[in-house]
Write a structure and sequence with these properties.
- The complex is a heterodimer of chains A (314) and B (262).
- By secondary structure, chain A is α/β, with parallel strands linked by helices.
- Chain A has two domains: 163 residues, HUPs (Rossmann fold, 3-Layer(aba) Sandwich), CATH 3.40.50.620; 124 residues, TPP-binding domain (Rossmann fold, 3-Layer(aba) Sandwich).
- Helices cover 27% and strands 25% of the residues of chain A.
- In chain A, helix 3 crosses helix 4 and helix 5 packs parallel to helix 8.
- Chain B has 262 residues and is an alpha/beta fold.
- Chain B has six helices and 15 strands.
- A nine-stranded mixed beta sheet of chain B has the order 11-10-9-12-8-1-6-7-13, with helices on both faces. A two-stranded antiparallel sheet of chain B has the order 2-5. In chain B, strands 3-4 form a two-stranded antiparallel sheet.
- Classes of the chains: A alpha/beta (314), B alpha/beta (262).
- The interface between A and B is large, with 99 and 78 residues.
């Protein structure tokens, strides 16, 4: 079975790309990667390590325009005869995969969290992570958009070829006026470790404690909805039902009570640590480890403990 | 400038701008989630349906704000049964001018999107707006599918939207940041947090909604490309292990050796 994996290589290759190629390899032996832009061939060839047979790159196409990428991927799907097309479920995939679904009349499974089951269905999160749904595709070609951090990349040491490809992507109707990108921050949906805080921190001036712990761990920072609403933290840090849904390996929440809407955004986390002064906070029911205590004392203490741990060679 | 007369004219003033806002029902965010029929169907017993929050708070309210400043018309479209008219009336109570219900079960995103696209095509709109996703299926699929069906540009996850003449200026989320983009109408936009503030319908709005036009149209024949075969609930968490707040070394040790996450 022929598999096509779309990878965005405009900002280097991230773990989510390796996950998507690994996923593609589990669907079929013949994995072609389609990408665009100026990434150098040696970098792209490393995708062979995760199961790609060949990488097709459209050097004429720059940027992330959804209409252009849809045309590019459709051309590559036809050229490679792919019956499965894989994306990493990021912001680009959310714009491109639905378009591609209509263009190819191929069923789309958004936010897959596992490889297909024996009956061919694929599990996704539904009801904002409160349940899983098994989805079946009724069309000959299927598109699967894989939620980051759902599978581990598997390296096999193989190499692959990199070929130029003309994707006939056409023009973009959208003009980019400006881009704001905070430097050096870990994108929240991709982060493996996340430190989050809520109203219990009493004010934005106290976020230094959260940032200190995050930096000691190498974690991204997040917050609860009220904190974003009152402007203590930027909206893109808000995790929960109406914010970002994340599934890191470790989620540390300080001063967040754990309303059902907040849990919906984080209950895919593998391990949850809750720090709260109120022993009755509902979040403890969803936690793996709980600390009843004042975040103002516990967070700096935890930061020191992490620093000690990291400096001992971990 | 309507979709069906693409590029034949531009909007001289925005008096007659036509905005189509797509809404979906979703269970109230506090609903208990359960399944019936051998875990193949969502258990609607005791579930209160609301307008999907992203559709209501961001897409609808921003559409109304544009109309209030520039003039024009805001139409609601929803694919659903007669039972779903309650949420459509809610959207009318918040301030939409009229509504259309496409009389069909929204079996999957493709089916739903093609129904809405067909309606948009034959009625002509300058701007189609949706929420960024529904809170029950979270697929984030319908808006992009509408855009492709209409061969229109699609700005996803927009957090800000301004209209000037024939041009939209939007802020949208990109990987790790924000981008400001411009696009000429007609276009499709999916709306995320930041676009507008929630509005509570007042009594006058609720009364007016009763008599606003709500047209029911028959669906077109469309295939369903995906189906939900069954549902499972996550495994219950084992009891939370409590750690002494003065002993954070223990927590670090457990995260390393037991949970193996650091």
């Amino acid at each position: 079975m022929s598999v096509l994996v779309y990878i965005n290589s405009n900002n280097g290759l991230h773990k989510s790309a390796f996950e998507a190629v690994t996923y593609g390899k589990k669907l079929g032996a013949d994995v072609t990667v389609i990408t665009s832009g100026n990434a150098d061939a040696a970098t792209l060839a490393t995708l062979g390590n995760y199961g790609a047979t060949k990488v097709l790159v459209d050097r004429a196409l720059n940027g992330d325009d959804a209409q252009q990428l849809t045309r590019l991927i459709a051309t590559a799907a036809t050229a490679s005869g792919a019956t499965s097309i894989v994306f990493s479920h990021d912001i680009i995939a959310k714009a491109v995969a639905p378009r591609l679904s209509v263009r190819l009349k191929a069923g789309l499974i958004s936010g897959a969290i596992a490889v297909p089951s024996a009956d061919g269905t694929v599990n996704v999160n539904v009801f904002s992570g409160k349940a899983f749904g098994a989805v079946k595709v009724n069309s000959a070609v299927k598109i699967i958009s894989l939620l980051p951090n759902s599978i581990q990349p598997e390296a096999n040491g193989a190499a692959c070829t990199v070929e130029d490809f003309a994707g006939n992507a056409g023009d973009s109707k959208i003009t980019i006026v400006s881009t704001k990108k905070p430097e050096g921050e870990i994108p929240l949906p991709e982060a493996e470790l996340v430190v989050s805080a809520g109203r219990g921190l009493k004010g934005p001036e106290n976020w230094g404690m959260v940032e200190d712990l995050a930096s000691a761990l190498g974690a991204a920072t997040a917050c609860s909805r009220p904190v974003a609403d009152i402007g203590w933290r930027p909206h893109h840090e808000h995790v929960g039902q109406t914010g970002v849904a994340i599934r890191p390996n470790l989620y540390i929440a300080a001063g967040i009570s754990g309303a059902i809407q907040h849990l919906a955004g984080v209950n895919g986390s593998k391990v949850i640590v809750v720090i709260n002064t109120d022993a009755e906070a509902p979040f403890f029911k969803a936690a793996d480890y709980g600390v009843v205590g004042d975040a103002f004392e516990v967070l700096p203490r935890l930061t020191e403990a992490v620093k000690k741990f990291r400096s001992s060679g971990h | 400038m309507r979709i069906f007369v693409l590029n034949l004219r531009t909007i001289e003033n925005n008096e007659n701008m036509k905005i189509l806002v797509c809404i979906s029902k979703s269970p109230d965010t506090t609903s208990k989630i359960a399944f019936t029929d051998n875990n193949t169907k969502f258990d609607e017993n005791g579930v209160q349906y609301i307008v999907n929050p992203y559709d209501e708070w961001y897409a609808l309210v921003r559409a109304l704000e544009i109309k209030e400043t520039l003039g024009g018309n805001v139409t609601i479209v929803s694919v659903g049964s007669a039972a779903d008219e309650a949420i459509i009336r809610k959207a009318l109570a918040i301030g939409a001018d009229d509504a259309v219900r496409i009389d069909a079960e929204p079996t999957d995103a493709y089916y739903t999107a093609v129904q809405i696209a067909e309606y948009a095509k034959s009625n002509g709109f300058d701007l189609v707006m949706t929420g960024k996703e529904t809170i029950n299926y979270n697929g984030s699929q319908v808006a992009g599918m509408i855009a492709e069906s209409l061969d229109l540009p699609f700005v996803s996850l927009a957090t800000k939207l301004d209209v000037s003449g024939n041009t939209l200026t939007l802020e949208r989320e990109i990987v790790g940041g924000l981008e400001v983009v411009q696009v000429a109408l007609p276009a499709v936009v999916s709306c995320a947090k930041g676009m507008a503030e929630q509005r509570i319908p007042n009594m006058r709005g609720i009364m007016a909604a009763r008599t606003k036009p709500l047209q029911v149209v028959a669906p077109v024949a469309v295939d369903t490309l995906t189906s939900y075969v069954s549902y499972t609930m996550p495994n219950a968490k084992s009891a939370c292990k409590m750690i002494d707040p003065t002993n954070m070394d223990e927590l670090v040790e457990l995260l390393h050796n037991e949970a193996k996450v650091i």
